[in-house]
Please model this.
Amino acid sequence: MTIRLPIRLGPVRRFTRNLLCPVDFLGRPLLLKYTRNATEAREEIRGHARLARHYRVPALHTHLRVPGGHLLAYERLPGGTDQGLLLDLLNADEPSSDLHAYMDRLTTAYREVILATAWPTDPAHIVRKLYWDRAAHSGRLDTYYAGKDFLTAEGLIDVPVSRLDTYALSINGRRHQLDWAATLRWLRAHFATAEPVWAALTQGDPTDVNLAHPLAWFDYDTAGMNSIPGEFANFLWYASALGGWLVPTYNPAAFADHPATFAHVPANTPEIRRAAVNYTTSTIHIDYTPRLSAPRRTAVTAYWNQLVRPVSDRLWPGSDLANLLRPYLAMRILGVYNLADLTAEDRLVLLARLAEAMSPAFDPITYFCPLESPCPAP
Model:
């Protein structure tokens, strides 16, 4: 006689500080999430409830206090190896009809909810985790960079970041400046103001691993009233830099169930062609080739044309989107990974990207969708 156990556990996966485990319990597919942080668990539960009124999310069946943390049991959506996420539609050589249809659904859902819930909001009453908290005293900017100095790119550009302001930066033939200390001060000051921010109800961290296929939203500890420019900068930077290049490079364990990601990292990794210092003219020369795979380019283009532009036209007619996006983009560049921990080549590219973002000539369209492979005309 065969005895069938009422519970069957799948492999445990670690995502940042949390653990995820698929479970079949009495024939019901569940996804268990274990978190040690009680505050994040409460935010996750509240965020799920907020989001469920406007977006498709898996059901939260129960949440329990357990030794050392909290356990949340979610409905498990269909998926598998290289299946079930927006990521899997991006892990291809060419954009598919499924990707085009997905981006249509995604941008339509966001456009409707954002425009229905958008409101100028006191920064004290919006989700602060990804931007305000990281810029605040003892946040990530302080933890990573306060009182510290490091080389721009050891072996390539042996100039401390603290002295970049004494050099002109020639990046792909265009002149830029980057004052490291002033940039950090500006970010801290920007996110310390009490000026109202246009916010709307969103998931807050719209990465290609937090968006399911078919369309649904995962991960809710940043769900709620989020800055709309911050939402835009988050998706655009993740789709064009983090998701295809930096995260699989520095956190490969997160892609254990989506191994096709690694085959596409070269198609999304910038290549440094020149890195040199001319001490006579005090000029640092950085030439790099941006790379973005065709599916990721398609996703970024659709997101910009079908969500960013129409929402911006409604909320900020005539405004400069570069100025709206700049502080959030700079925080995503500096506040996800500590630049000092990256390889010299990756750090150099990110410092170049930071200088380009801080430039008065910053153009989000060409920035997020590099000219090596032009975006379709809007």
